[in-house]
């Protein structure tokens, strides 16, 4: 990325991606033109995909052991520093309404303060942070924002609806972008439901996975081993056959209902065992998107859950993103976790462009 500074020297942004996973955020930032120097993650099973698809170096380490000196070594001399990160969201996602605080003994709980510690020690010019919306009510997050203010950062903190950024998925995420250079504007939406006002129309399930070869539950595509969907029990095959796009288990014959569906409480989770709709964005791709019983993850027409490739495409990873070495088996649970946890590549790309526009405005004003 080159933005001219006042003294006509070029300004380059280099990033380190904390909690980098298989690289959704890294890939998107890089695609926007930001140089990502390194990604750090404690999980060795992320290494293959991260290294194969990104030029950044994968560092297998616990963030709690990373120091300011470690990070500063990754940033090339004279570049603006971007510290990017997406701490694990499990402690904050889907908190029961009667429990506003996640379990304090969840060791992942403190990882956001580790991000804050590194911000304080490195004071990078730019920061971006993504997490699930419920985190915004938590003290640990409010303390993080207080820390940014006390260090002199200006920031924008928004709940973004992913279809507004070209992601074919109704995911909502909290995105924080902070800068020590000056005021940060909110992210600009690029898409709207029908593409009015110069924006593009929402991307849909059909646009994204509609041209993949048909496969059955338990079958693997011959030309793409990631296009594989788990086997279903006979009863679940019957259930999905009777499911309509966007429908619920109300559409099934009563013999197929599980005891929990018949209870009054069963009415509150109607979208499980659902089929998605072709012409809308998909439901949020969770780490369980390959499991028909975990949400509306049934294929719109075929009698199976989403394949691993379909989940990756709905997370806007490119078609050729390589998740597994050619002679290694596809581990559905592990890949589902990596893909469902990722920052959608298109959202990450939008964040990257936004940060660059901010820097250009700063140096050109
Ligand atoms: C939400 S995912 C990040 C997804 C990633 N940003 C992407 O876009 O693909 C959180 C990651 O944090 C990693 N993680 C959890 N605890 C960690 C720790 N103590 N140190 C480093 N990484 C950790 C997990 O292995 C997981 O890959």
Description:
- The longest helix is centred in the last third of the chain and has 20 residues.
- This protein has 365 residues and is an alpha/beta fold.
- The protein has two domains: 221 residues, Vaccinia Virus protein VP39 (Rossmann fold, 3-Layer(aba) Sandwich); 137 residues, DNA Methylase, subunit A, domain 2 (DNA Methylase, Chain A, domain 2, Alpha-Beta Complex).
- α1 crosses α11 and α4 runs parallel beside α5.
- Helices cover 28% and strands 15% of the residues.
- About 1% of the residues have low confidence.
- It is globular and about 70 Å long.
- The strands form three sheets. Strands 5-4-3-6-7-9-8 form a seven-stranded mixed β-sheet, with helices on one face. The protein has a two-stranded antiparallel ribbon with strand order 1-2. A two-stranded parallel sheet has the order 10-11.
- The site of S-adenosylmethionine (SAM) has 22 residues, from α1.
């Amino acid at each position: 990325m080159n933005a001219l500074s006042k003294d006509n020297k070029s300004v380059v942004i280099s990033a380190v991606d904390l909690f980098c996973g298989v690289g959704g955020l890294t890939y998107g930032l890089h695609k926007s033109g930001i140089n990502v120097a390194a990604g750090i993650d404690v999980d060795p099973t992320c290494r293959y995909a991260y290294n194969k698809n990104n030029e950044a170096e994968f560092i297998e380490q616990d963030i709690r052991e990373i120091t300011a000196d470690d990070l500063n070594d990754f940033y090339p001399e004279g570049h603006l520093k971007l510290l990017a990160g997406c701490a694990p969201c499990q402690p904050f996602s889907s908190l029961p309404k009667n429990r506003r605080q996640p379990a304090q003994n969840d060791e992942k709980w403190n990882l956001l303060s580790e991000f804050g510690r590194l911000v304080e020690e490195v004071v990078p010019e730019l920061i971006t942070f993504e997490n699930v919306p419920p985190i915004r009510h938590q003290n640990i997050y409010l303390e993080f924002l207080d820390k940014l203010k006390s260090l002199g950062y200006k920031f924008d903190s928004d709940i973004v609806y992913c279809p507004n950024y070209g992601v074919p998925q109704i995911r909502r995420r909290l995105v924080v972008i902070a800068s020590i250079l000056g005021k940060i504007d909110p992210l600009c939406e690029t898409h709207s439901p029908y593409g009015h006002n110069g924006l593009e129309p929402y991307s849909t399930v059909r646009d994204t996975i509609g041209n993949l070869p048909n496969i059955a539950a338990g079958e693997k595509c011959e030309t793409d081993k990631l296009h594989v969907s788990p086997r279903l029990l006979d009863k679940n095959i019957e259930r999905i056959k009777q499911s309509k796009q966007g429908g619920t288990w109300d559409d099934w014959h009563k013999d197929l209902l599980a005891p929990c569906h018949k209870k009054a409480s069963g009415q509150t989770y109607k979208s499980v065992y659902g089929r998605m709709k072709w012409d809308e964005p998909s439901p949020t791709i969770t780490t369980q998107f390959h499991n028909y019983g975990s949400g509306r993850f049934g294929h719109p027409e075929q009698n199976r859950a989403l394949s691993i490739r379909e989940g990756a495409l709905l997370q806007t990873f490119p078609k050729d993103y390589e998740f597994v070495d050619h002679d290694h088996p596809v581990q559905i649970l592990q890949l589902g976790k990596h893909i469902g946890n990722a920052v959608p590549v298109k959202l990450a790309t939008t964040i990257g462009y936004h940060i660059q526009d901010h820097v250009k405005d700063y140096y050109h004003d």
